[in-house]
Write a structure and sequence with these properties.
Distance between the termini: 71 Å
Helix content: 25-40%
Number of helices: 12
Radius of gyration: 24 Å
Largest sheet: 7 strands, mixed
Structural class: alpha/beta
Strand content: 25-35%
């Protein structure tokens, strides 16, 4: 089919959080906008990330709540879990949300194209669909293509699934091997162990949750181990092959360790959760001359401008902050700055983050290690650890998660530069603590705040110095 060229003020490639926000805001400023998506509207967060993952986590939390309920006198018979029913219900909700994203774009006046996009030049995008090729010309191009899960290059690597595949599993694996120790790995391990499976985590290093406070990471992985997750530190997967029982996984010790990681595992499912790479294959960026960073991400300035005039990028493909709210803020700032809103450079500011594992954890601002590196002796720590009230009626020897809280302060004024928590409700509480850290409040401001009793959150205004 002969290409048809259509003219727009902005052509966006990628229908995820950053691209959708940029397209909608640009359209409200009067721009003629086209957006191209090759998969499903909503991107990583809606389709294969935040939303479906959190729904699975709720299912895991519900299973743990059944055990806690017995301490309050409930007589509940747990007759098992229907993994397929959960998977299908989650898929239905994802379909509903994806449709909302598509509908909101259309109502904003954005022209939607569904197909593979490639940059012909700095102003032209070729869109390949089943019906042929369309060519879109834009005064400005925005790349919002997100990331893809990194795959493990080992013999039999084609047998190793990635995080996207979790949401289409036919059944809950009897024994899962999860490679990695980041937040995705911790969350998957939590869900699968809570829903009745066996889980082995294979971790190349000696600690988990990079980017989180050391005390937080230690307690999260202690909680996973207490739930029965078999954590193999300083271990790597060397090869995978099929056998009569499912999959045989050969492991080896990580370089520089004592060799304890060498051995074999038999499992029914194996998944690599070892990071994500920018989704740039087939976009034609090399011919445009778009500069990439050492990790393959698109290099941008504070205005989300790439090295090529008129070509911009936001979201995970830039490697700045790989979180949905960050992509949304980047897309909004870009659209305002380029199409008539308040012109403002991007400032991510203080970024809260969470791991929806069991136990849950969250943090905002500097970790203790980062603060000590920056401020030395001027760094102060306030922290506490205690048994949650909801577990008070459990037997004294019962396993339960203790709540951990930490404030990191700086200088004589004790400005709060970090807040961290492990335990039920951590993400919700840290979201509010993020306001205090962003505003530069002091420990004295926390002390002056009246406690709301009885809550876990009140401990943040009662902390004593360590």
């Amino acid at each position: 089919m002969t290409s048809v060229e259509e003219a727009f003020d902005l052509v966006v490639i990628g229908g995820g959080s950053g691209g959708v926000r940029a397209a909608r805001i640009a359209a409200t400023h009067g721009a003629r906008v086209a957006i191209v998506e090759k998969s499903r509207w909503g991107g990583t967060c809606v389709v294969r990330g935040c939303i479906p993952k959190k729904l699975f986590v709720y299912a895991a939390q519900a299973r743990e709540a059944l055990a806690l309920a017995a301490s309050f006198g409930h007589q509940i018979e747990h007759r098992g879990h229907d993994f397929a029913a959960l998977r299908d219900a989650v898929a239905g909700e994802v379909t509903r949300l994806s449709g909302l994203y598509r509908g909101n774009l259309a109502r904003a006046g954005v022209v939607l194209f569904e197909g593979e996009a490639a940059c012909v030049d700095a102003h032209t995008v070729a869109v390949r669909t089943g019906a042929g090729e369309r060519r879109l010309r834009g005064e400005k191009l925005l790349l919002a293509v997100g990331g893809v899960p990194r795959r493990l290059a080992v013999p039999g690597g084609e047998l190793i699934d990635v995080s996207d595949d979790f949401f289409t599993l036919r059944e809950r694996p009897a024994h899962a091997v999860v490679i990695g120790a980041g937040f995705i790995a911790a969350e998957f391990a939590s869900v699968l162990i809570a829903l009745g499976g066996r889980v082995t985590m294979v971790v190349r290093g000696g600690r988990g949750l990079p980017g989180f406070d050391d005390d937080v990471a230690t307690r999260v992985f202690a909680g996973l181990a207490a739930r029965g997750v078999d954590i193999r530190w300083h271990t790597e997967v060397a090869a995978v092959e099929k056998n009569a029982a499912g999959l045989r996984v050969t492991t080896k010790a990580s370089a520089g360790t004592d060799g304890a990681g060498a051995g074999e595992l038999t499992c029914t499912w194996i998944c690599a959760a070892i990071g994500r790479d920018p989704n740039l294959d087939g976009l034609g960026l090399a011919s445009l001359g778009v500069a990439l960073g050492p990790q393959g991400h698109i290099v941008v300035d504070e205005w989300s401008q790439t090295s090529v005039p008129g070509v911009f990028a936001v979201g995970d493909c830039t490697g700045r902050v790989q979180l949905t709210p960050a992509a949304i803020r980047e897309g909004h700032a870009f659209a305002d700055s380029q199409f008539g809103g308040p012109r403002r450079p991007l400032r991510h500011g203080v970024v809260p983050s969470a791991v929806f594992s069991l136990p849950q954890a969250a943090g905002v601002g500097l970790t203790e290690a980062e603060a000590r590196s920056q401020f030395g002796a001027a760094c102060g720590i306030y922290q506490t650890e205690f048994r949650a009230l909801q577990s008070a009626l459990l037997p004294a020897d019962a396993a339960f998660d203790r709540i951990f809280m930490k404030l990191v302060v700086q200088g004589e004024a004790e400005i709060v530069v970090g807040a961290h928590m492990v335990g039920d409700g951590a993400a919700e509480i840290i979201q509010m603590a993020g306001i205090a850290v962003t505003a530069g409040l002091t420990k004295a401001d926390f002390d002056a705040t009246l406690a709301l009793h009885p809550t876990a959150a009140e401990e943040f205004v009662l902390l004593k110095k360590q």
